[in-house]
Amino acid sequence: MKDVPGSGSYSGRYWHFLDDGRMQCDLCPRHCRLHGEQRGACFVRQRVGDRMVLTAYGRSSGFCIDPIEKKPLNHFYPGSAVLSFGTAGCNLACKFCQNWDISKSREMETLADAAMPEAIAASAAAHGCKSVAFTYNDPVIFAEYAMDVADACHQLGIRTVAVTAGYMGAEARRDFYARMDAANVDLKGFSDAFYVAFTGAHLQPVLETLQYLKHETDVWLEITTLLIPGKNDSDDEIRAEARWIARELGPDVPLHFTAFHPDYKMRDVPPTPCSTLARARKHALAEGLHYVYTGNVHDTAGATTHCPACRAQLIVRDWHAIESYRLTPTGTCPDCFAQIAGRFGNFERQFGRRRIPVRIGE
Ligand code: SF4
After folding, report:
1. What are the phi and psi torsion angles at 8 (to 5°)?
2. CB 178 within 8 A of CB 149
3. Does residue 54 line the site of ligand 1, with CB under 6 A?
4. Domain count within the chain
5. Residue 218: inside a domain, yes or no?
6. Per-residue pLDDT tens digits for 216-242
7. Model confidence, pTM
8. Are residue 136 and residue 185 in the same domain, yes or no?
9. Atom of ligand 1 nearest to the CA of 24
10. Which of 31, 42, 209 has the most ligand 1 atoms within 8 A of CB, as the residue to mutate?
11. Atom of ligand 1 nearest to the CA of 44
């Protein structure tokens, strides 16, 4: 059968046959083993005869222009606009999913916006976006589509951003991140027990992705941990996570602690108090990390970038808006000339705290 993007019959890669005739998907560590016309746990990858089909290729759940701070990325062209989109499905099963209407969608009809890679890249350029983000649901499961979009973006000088849980097989990871300029990886907790109980996944493959990104690629990396009261917010767990990041990835990888709101299968857990985010930030700074942020709350102190050398305030933020910006175009502190980790350029004006839906082709 011929591949027809957007038709639900696009051939997926990263799989092999087992001796018993089942097809094993190698795209992520779940390693779904498929009979007949079975779909994988992510729902969008399906065995059809002797093919693996990516049913979501060329189909999106919608496009929005966001500030890059919303991904969240605080050290990747601050203030710039990013064209964001996702598809449907997910390879994790987080009980606390904050985007579950998209990630748990079994309704392929919700993928209303047919969009080919070249059209997405052209739309990003036409709207003045510096980058395109694969987000809302995990791009791992639509990797072939995301990689084709990334190639089209790079043809036009548009950068690419993955917002992901980092749960990916080694071969696909190499291909995928060769096409990404930045990533925000969700490190959902710092114990395997938490991963197993609340996400249906395991911690170690995520740590391997983080190490791969930091040590074997030029991808700009930031990490986010959603703190859930009573589940992954103990002092010991937060300190252990920050210590691991400082030791294994280095102190310059930004870490965002963000606030949970009751959702999906965890509506009985209260929202994260601001005091928990502030406590986590204090612990992570004490463990030696240079850039630790709080998110999903109004907390100017927790959203500000300081110079790690002289402690000057360099980028002051409120939620996703920048209130003052003092970095030089090359990303140095104007007071002591220390280099700030990240990707920076001329800062002229910011996109601001807006969210603009767009239709591709319009
Ligand atoms: S990408 Fe989907 S089909 Fe493949 S192993 Fe992961 S959950 Fe299963």
Report:
1. 85, 15
2. no
3. no
4. 2
5. yes
6. 999 999 999 999 999 999 999 999 999
7. 0.96
8. yes
9. 5
10. 42
11. 2
The CA distances from residue 340 to 38, 304, 309, 324, in Å, are: 49, 13, 9, 16
- Using one digit for the tens of pLDDT, what is the confidence trace for 141-150? 999 999 999 9
110's CB contacts (< 8 A; 6+ apart) are: 61, 88, 102
The DSSP call for residue 314 is E
Q: Are 83 and 129 in contact (CB under 8 A)?
A: yes
According to DSSP, residue 259 is labeled: E
274 is in an annotated binding site: no
Cα 233 to Cα 217: distance, rounded to the nearest angstrom: 30
What is the bridge-based pairing of β-strands 313-318 and 321-325?
antiparallel
Nearest CA to ligand 1 atom 6: 28
Both structure tokens of 246: 């400082």
Same domain, 105 and 25: no
Q: CB within 8 A of 8, min separation 6: which ones?
A: 53, 55, 57, 59, 108
Average of per-residue pLDDT values in the chain: 93
Q: Does residue 5 sit within a domain?
A: no
Does ligand 1 have an atom closer than 6 angstroms to the CB of 289? Answer: no
Half-sphere exposure of 214 (CA within 13 A, CB side): 20
Contacts of 145 (CB under 8 A, 6+ apart): 10, 54, 56, 57, 58, 87, 117
- Tell me what pLDDT residue 238 has: 98
